Amino acid sequence: MNKKITLACAECSSRNYTTHKNVSTQPARLEVKKYCKTCGRHTLHRETK
């Protein structure tokens, strides 16, 4: 089952991106390096609750 998740910047905590993930195959929290408009550079984005 796919679930809609929100990704937040690890440095400034702004919620920049939304995506979908399959909860049954990926139970751990998602961490991706993406561009943050607030910071102005690529930072680590983590899945929020």
Would you write up a description of this structure?
- With 49 residues, this protein is mainly beta.
- It has no helices and 4 strands.
- It has strands at residues 2-9, 15-22, 31-36, 41-47.
- Strands 2-1-4-3 form a 4-stranded antiparallel β-sheet, with no helix packed on it.
- A hairpin with a 5-residue loop joins strand 1 (2-9) and strand 2.
- The two termini are 17 Å apart.
- The mean pLDDT is 95.
- One of its GO terms (cellular component) is ribosome.
- This is Large ribosomal subunit protein bL33.
Short description:
The protein is mainly beta and 49 residues long. It is built from no helices and four strands. The chain is elongated and about 35 Å long.
Unreliable spans: none
Order of helices and strands: EEEE
Shape estimate: elongated
Instruction: Strand order, main sheet: write it out.
Output: 2-1-4-3
Average pLDDT metric: 95
Helix content: under 10%
Global Rg: 11 Å
C-alpha end-to-end distance: 17 Å
**Can you count the helices?**
0
List the keywords.
about 50 residues; four-stranded antiparallel β-sheet; about 0% helix; Ribosomal_zn-bd; Large ribosomal subunit protein bL33; structural constituent of ribosome; Ribosomal_bL33; Ribosomal_bL33_sf
